[in-house]
Design goal:
two-stranded antiparallel sheet; 17 helices; 454 residues; 2 strands; mainly alpha; 2% strand
């Protein structure tokens, strides 16, 4: 009778297979999973992440990056656990990795970052992925073709390592297009092209300066950029360029700083000439006849700053008073005319009151002398003959500037007053009795033919 043979499915065979599987698993565990590794890990050193500075330092521990089929975590989760800053970018669509994931949802980490290719192998290769170049600050929209008019490839700029870029690549390529321009451009702004350029040619031939506070007008339109933006080697250098005229034109200032730094007070962008200076912005305003005076009449030898502002410095030769009134012409005169005199005599030691107020200047100042004149009444009026020398020169004892016909206030020799004689002489002027002089008198002027006074 024949017996059925199950081959390796015999009890002995199953036990042998199980022991073999356990032996292989133990060996794999002891070797850290390296037995199944498709190749060595990268040994390129970087920042400390997950306790290691390179993938090779994991020591062949596959579980450090790979997950078992029954685990919910994935390889991408293992990457994110170490590369936390990349994980944050993946959640931000405006970032490079976020934009890349958004445009290529099928991509995983190892699609661009392959491993197990050797200790020195590159860790970044795009393999034709739609890379969002704008996310790294440089757009390819302005760079569709090389100098040879061929479409750009990544290697044209990055060589064999897509993660690196040598700025010399820019100058090397653009020299083939215009060597003379590049030489001048590099001399003016340096060779760190990416400090200013972002691939969209914002600072190219069609740059509109009038979108900024400082508009390019007049003769400024023909000035090259580097004449104002000298020593600009990065984008921020352009924005901090001074907008003051003096920052560019100080070396050409024919006034040697005497007018300060506000060139626009006199000049404009159309040219240095003609210049228009608003003298009313200065401490000495031009009024009246001063407005018609040529500049060099006051500013001799083109000296402007420090020019005297007192009248006498310019008008000394025209002083009709010979200096006797001092140097402050403005006490009497104003810029409208020399003949327009506003002298206030009441500000002097001899105020004009009463009848003096209407007297012409020449009546007192007949010799043209104004200072040092006597203020006594007798200097003009003398001692009237009528007084017969009886009262001296103290006119103000009896008279005022409003009335020469004063009543004598003192005791009258030879005649009693109203209370003493009963004769009323009060109220009469001196000439009522003293018809010729005060030394003679007559009663008949009032008592003609009537000695009794009836």
């Amino acid at each position: 009778m024949k017996r059925n043979r199950l081959g390796c499915l015999t009890g002995t065979g199953l036990i042998a297979a199980l022991l073999t599987a356990l032996l292989i698993a133990g060996f794999a565990y002891a070797r850290g999973g390296s037995i199944y590794s498709p190749g060595p890990l990268s040994a390129q050193s970087g920042e400390m992440r997950g306790g290691v500075t390179s993938h090779a330092q994991t020591g062949g521990n596959c579980n450090a990056c790979h997950t078992a089929p029954w685990e919910q975590a994935t390889l991408a989760d293992r990457c994110a656990a170490c590369h936390t800053e990349i994980a944050a970018q993946m959640r931000n669509v405006a970032s490079m990795h976020g934009t890349l994931a958004h445009n290529n949802p099928q991509l995983g980490c190892r699609d661009c970052h392959p491993e197990h290719r050797g200790a020195d192998a590159k860790l970044t290769e795009l393999h034709g992925a739609d890379f969002p170049h704008e996310a790294v600050g440089f757009s390819l929209n302005g760079h569709p073709f090389t100098a040879a008019r061929e479409p750009f490839t990544c290697q044209d700029c990055h060589g064999d390592d897509i993660s690196k870029f040598d700025p010399v690549t820019c100058t090397g390529c653009h020299r083939q297009i215009d060597a003379a321009f590049m030489a001048a451009h590099a001399l003016a702004y340096g060779t760190a092209c990416l400090e200013c350029h972002d691939g969209v040619d914002r600072f190219g031939k069609n740059f509109d300066h009038n979108r900024f506070p400082f508009r390019i007008e007049g003769k400024h339109a023909g000035v090259s950029c580097d004449q104002c933006h000298s020593s600009a080697h990065r984008l921020s250098d352009f924005s901090v360029t001074s907008q003051e005229c003096d920052s560019c034109h100080k070396k050409d200032d024919p006034h040697d700083g005497r007018f300060g730094a506000r060139c626009a007070d006199c000049h404009n962008e159309n040219g240095w000439r003609p210049a228009k200076f608003d003298h009313n912005l200065a401490s000495f305003k031009l009024e009246g006849e001063h407005q018609e005076v040529p500049c060099d009449s006051c500013h001799i030898n083109k000296v402007y700053k420090g020019t005297p502002t007192d009248c006498y410095s310019c008008h000394q030769q025209q002083d009709a008073h010979g200096g006797q009134y001092g140097r402050d012409c403005a006490i009497c005169h104003d810029p409208s005319s020399w003949e327009h005199v506003n002298f206030d005599h009441n500000n002097t030691q001899f105020p004009l009151t009463g009848a003096h107020a209407g007297v012409e200047c020449q009546r007192c100042h007949s010799s043209g002398q104004f200072t040092g004149l006597s203020t006594s009444c007798s200097s003009c009026h003398g001692d009237p003959a009528f007084h017969a020398g009886m009262f001296g020169l103290e006119c103000a004892s009896c008279h005022t500037t409003s009335n020469w016909s004063a009543v004598y206030k003192g005791p009258h020799p030879g005649i009693a007053d109203e209370g003493g004689s009963g004769v009323n002489h009060g109220g009469g002027g001196c000439r009522s009795c003293h018809t010729q002089t005060l030394s003679t008198a007559t009663c008949t002027q009032c008592h003609s033919g009537n000695p009794g006074g009836d």
